[in-house]
């Protein structure tokens, strides 16, 4: 009895590990497409082609395009969080707080631009906007850096002011409606940080 | 023929002027109620009682409560705009730019708090959020002050950062979800302005 089960258990474990790797590979392919050609370029077909698998494999993992986009946002958000919480300098903990704060704005801008369609589609209602977990985590992080740099400031409020200045909906308005180059928004973050740090 | 019409025209003019006065009186009464007891206290009945007229008069002017609230927001917005564009100091043009900028945040906060329910109910969709006329006018005004005070700064972006720091949805989150006193948000505006002006 045990003998007949062991190979099956082994097979199942093998399949699961394979499924996890497969999923990660598909999400990496989708993230590459989003970064290079924008989220609009993400379809079940383009992700399958980019990952070198059949379209059926993508469908089995994510259901439809919306399922894929949601999974991609979670995945991308997690990598961004890892980068500023525990990644290498200038974002991560080995750099000094001023360097980390200066680097955070452009990193957030690029993360948001790479996932623009996802963020705009997932924009929460007004009463939830500041309570969603990624926003709270960013705020905690920026407030921690501000507290280290400006002990006499109201770090909580300054962190909100900083984050709001590169908020995805505002930046989209500036870029789309006013044709503002993203480099100018990045320079604006550095200017704001430098003026605050005096 | 002319003789029979003249009195009617006179009567009509008289009625119109009366209607305008009536409308203004009802809106002033509603604004007082909102400032003293919050927008939730505004009903057709309370406004009628505050203005010393019958409920039918309020219904004839505004239709229903929603019509009244929309008219009130327009009315209140216009008074706020007059205050910072052409009103007395510290908001208006007779004060120096630094004084006007310092005063603008608390004035905006109080204006938004007095109309909180209206603003939350009227919160535009993401793609329209920064394009609505009152927001644009505030931005033009703050950018003009920043330009006068910090000629080397990116006034357009700094104005967005400043305005976002006292944005109605953020402030509502801070006050409602975190129990932050409004006085602290006001102090945060002054702190932010003072740090930027150096």
UniProtKB/TrEMBL annotation, chains A, B:
<protein>
    <submittedName>
        <fullName>TetR family transcriptional regulator</fullName>
    </submittedName>
</protein>
<dbReference type="InterPro" id="IPR050109">
    <property type="entry name" value="HTH-type_TetR-like_transc_reg"/>
</dbReference>
<feature type="domain" description="HTH tetR-type">
    <location>
        <begin position="20"/>
        <end position="80"/>
    </location>
</feature>
<keyword id="KW-0238">DNA-binding</keyword>
<feature type="DNA-binding region" description="H-T-H motif">
    <location>
        <begin position="43"/>
        <end position="62"/>
    </location>
</feature>
<dbReference type="InterPro" id="IPR001647">
    <property type="entry name" value="HTH_TetR"/>
</dbReference>
<dbReference type="Pfam" id="PF00440">
    <property type="entry name" value="TetR_N"/>
</dbReference>
<dbReference type="InterPro" id="IPR009057">
    <property type="entry name" value="Homeodomain-like_sf"/>
</dbReference>
């Amino acid at each position: 009895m045990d003998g007949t089960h062991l190979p099956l258990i082994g097979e199942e474990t093998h399949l699961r590990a394979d499924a996890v790797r497969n999923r990660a590979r598909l999400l990496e392919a989708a993230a590459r497409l989003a970064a290079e050609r924008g989220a609009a370029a993400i379809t079940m077909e383009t992700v399958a082609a980019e990952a070198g698998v059949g379209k059926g494999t993508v469908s089995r993992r994510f259901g439809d395009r919306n399922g894929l986009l949601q999974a991609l946002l979670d995945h991308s958000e997690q990598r961004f969080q890892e980068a500023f919480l525990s990644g290498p300098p200038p974002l991560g903990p080995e750099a000094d707080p001023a360097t980390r704060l200066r680097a955070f704005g452009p990193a957030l801008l690029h993360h948001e631009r790479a996932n623009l369609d996802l963020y705009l589609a997932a924009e929460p209602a007004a009463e939830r906007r500041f309570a969603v977990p990624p926003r709270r985590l960013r705020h905690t992080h920026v407030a921690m850096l501000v507290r280290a740099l400006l002990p006499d400031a109201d770090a909580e409020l300054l962190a909100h002011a900083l984050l709001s200045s590169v908020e995805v909906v505002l930046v989209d308005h500036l870029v789309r409606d006013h044709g503002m180059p993203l480099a100018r928004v990045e320079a604006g973050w550095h200017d704001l940080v430098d003026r605050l740090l005096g």
